[in-house]
Each structure stands twice: as C-alpha cells, then as structure tokens.
Amino acid sequence: MANVSLYNMDGQEIGTMEVADSVFAAPIKENLVHLSVVQHLAALRQGTQKAKTRSEVSGGGRKPWRQKGTGHARQGSTRSPQWTHGGVVFAPTPRSYKINMNSKEKKAALKSVLTSKLNEGKLVVVDKLTMDAPATKTFVKVMKNLGAEKAYVVTAGSDRNVFLSARNLKDIRLSNAGTLCVYDILKYNKLVLTQDAVKAIEEVFA
Fold this sequence. Notes:
It is built from seven helices and six strands, in the order ββαααβαβαβαβα. By secondary structure, it is an alpha/beta fold. The protein folds into two domains: 2-45 and 101-205, Ribosomal Protein L4, Chain: A (3-Layer(aba) Sandwich); 46-96, no CATH class. The protein has a six-stranded mixed sheet. Strand 4, helix 5 and strand 5 (172-176) form a beta-alpha-beta unit. Helix 2 crosses helix 3 (103-119) and helix 4 (136-145) packs across helix 5 (160-166).
C-alpha cells in the first residue's frame, strides 16, 4: 500500500497514511474518464428547446393564390418555411442528452482520476476539517496552509459550519465522499481529502 503525507489544518505534516492501491494506484483508463466527463456535461443540458414545424404553426390552411397564371411561384401554404411566420424546417424538439455508464465504468473512471491526482502530487490529505462556527476567512486560511487555494474538498460527512464557510468561495468546491464527481476532481487544481473521507472512499471503491 502507498503512503501519503498527512497534514493538520495548520498545514503541518503530522505523519503518513496508507491508502489502498486498488483505489489510489489503479490503472488509468483515459477513455472512461473522458466518457464520465461527457456524461456529466450532458446531464447538465436541459434538452427543452422547441420550435414549431410547418405542421404545428397555426394558419396557412388556404392556398395563397391559384397554381398557374399569376406570375408568382406556386405556393401551397403561407406557413411553409420560406414564408415569414412559417414553420422551421428541422425544428429542435425536447430530448434527453443522457449518456449511460455502468457502475464498473464509473468506479474505474473515479479510480483513474484519484490515481492521477496522487501521481501528480495534487492530492492533500488532512486529518480533520472542522469549524466551531461559520467563518469564511478561517476556511480560506486553512486552504492556504494546505497550499490548496483552488481545490475540490471532500469530507466524510456534511458539516454545516464547514459548508457555510466554503459556499461563497468560487475557487472551492465542497463535497462529501458519497457524491464524488470525476469532472470536479479534474476541474480543480488540488484535491483535498479528510482522513475519514479517504477511508469512506476505500470502503466503497476498494
């Protein structure tokens, strides 16, 4: 098992922690990481865009002029696409952009990015992350001590004081071990895990 440095909230190294090779030294599968990111971005799309085709636009039931003898091009309806107020030729319709990934693929993608962060030296493990009261300045100081001003912070559970302290910081994303996101791990420069979060992740993915 690999060892990672363990820090306290003051940024001091207080020891090391063993992490499971099955999670933090897994094969890096770039294709699944890419698929996971595409799936995440696709899930953010609402898919509610709609325009009317010529069959859905009201009016246009009568032929605007007779077929021959007028000097105009023949027309069957004033709701054809070439007319003002006509229908749209290939009108967008509501659709789902959902992309499916099975659980094994999701786990492999997550292990890949966790391994990548560790290999790049961008994984920080802190013994605990607690706040006596909501204080954004204090939280910013803790992140600065850890060298993680722009970071994806993962805790084992949800701490209200920590959440309130971090929610207004645009460069910090707070999550818990049960809702890890491949996209967010890649998006932020550093990945900060609490000691309990590491154990929770290993219990699920090891």
